Amino acid sequence: LQPDPWDWASEGAWLRVRVGEEGAGRWWGEEEEWAWPEAEGAWPEAEGGWWLSPDSAFSKRVVRRGRGLAKPGRGSLCRWAWPGAEPGSGGWGTVRVGEGAGRWAGLLDACLESMGEGEGAWLRPEGAGLTEGKRGAGLQVTLGRFTAPPFWWEEPVGGEGRWAEVRAWQEGAESFLRAGWTEPAARAYSRALRLAVAAGGGVVPPPFLSPAELHAGLALCQLRLNLPAPAATNAGRALALDPTHVEARYRRGLAAAAMRDLEAAAADLGRVLREEPGHPGARRELRRVRGEARERDARLARRLGRLFA
C-alpha cells in the first residue's frame, strides 16, 4: 500500500524547528487573532482568483493581504497558523524556511517566501485542485512574525554549526526511511549532501559521519524509488570515499542487477560475501543474479544454434 503523497503524517517532524531555536534572531511583525471571513472559511468552490507560482508547483489564493515589503527567505524562522482542521489540531507553529523535506513542507516553504506579514491565503498543490467535483488537497495559511533570512557566509567553513545541520538532515532522512516515506527521505539526504559540501570539503570533524553514509543512504532511497542508475552512481561515490563500505557495495550490486548488468552485479555481491559472509541479502541476490545469467546464456546459445543450424 503506497502512502498518500499529501498526508500530513509524514511531515510532522519537519513542520517545527529544533528545540532552542524559536527565540533566535530578530523577529518582524506580530501574531494576532484573526478570523477568516465566513465566505472564505470553506474550500473555494470557484477556480478564479488563484495565483500560480513561477515554477507551477502550487497555487495561492490571497484572502487577506500582508503588510510591508519584507518577506521571509531561506533560513527565516516563521510563525504561521493553519485555521483549518486538515493539518491536525490547528493553531500557531514555527518553521524554518528551507528545512522541509516532505511534499507539503516544501510547498509551505515556497508559499511563505511569497507572503508578507499578516497575510492569509489558501495554498493548493498544482494538479490537486478541483477535478470532477472533488476539492483535492488544500490548506489555509496565515503568516505571523518572521526573522530575516541569515547570510550563509556567517557560519565559518568547517564550523560545527554547519556539520550539526548536516547531521540533523541525515537523522531526519533516517526517520523518514523508518516510517516508509522514501521520497521525503531522498530529498533530505540530497539536502544533507549539499550542506556537507558547503561545510568544508572532505575533512569531517568528530562525531559527525562521513559523506559516504549520505551517498549510501541516498542510493538506498533511489533503489526503493526504482531509480537504479542514480542509485549506482551514489553507491559508487560512497565507495570512492570509503572502499570498505559494505552496504554501498551491496546497493551498487542491486542497482547493476536492476539495469541487467549481471556481471557487475555478481562481482559486487561476491565481494560483499567475501567481506561479510553472513550478509542477509547478498547470498540470496547473488544466487538470483547467477541464475538469471545462466538463463540469458542458455537463450543466447539456443538462438545461435538455430542461426547456424
Question: What does it look like?
Answer:
With 309 residues, the protein is an alpha+beta fold. It has two domains: 8-34 and 47-150, Chitinase A, domain 3 (Roll); 160-305, Alpha Horseshoe (Serine Threonine Protein Phosphatase 5, Tetratricopeptide repeat). It contains eight helices and seven strands. The protein has helices spanning 103-112, 160-179, 182-200, 211-224, 228-241, 246-258, 262-275, 282-307, and strands at 27-28, 51-52, 58-64, 77-82, 91-96, 120-125, 139-147. Strands 1, 2, 3, 4, 5, 6 and 7 form a seven-stranded antiparallel β-sheet that branches. Helix 4 (211-224) runs antiparallel to helix 5 (228-241), helix 4 packs parallel to helix 6 and helix 6 (246-258) packs antiparallel against helix 7 (262-275). The N and C termini lie far apart (50 Å). Residues 16-25, 84-89 and 129-135 have low confidence and may be disordered. This is FKBPL protein. InterPro entries: FKBP4/5/8-like, TPR-like_helical_dom_sf, TPR_rpt. It comes from Calidris pygmaea.
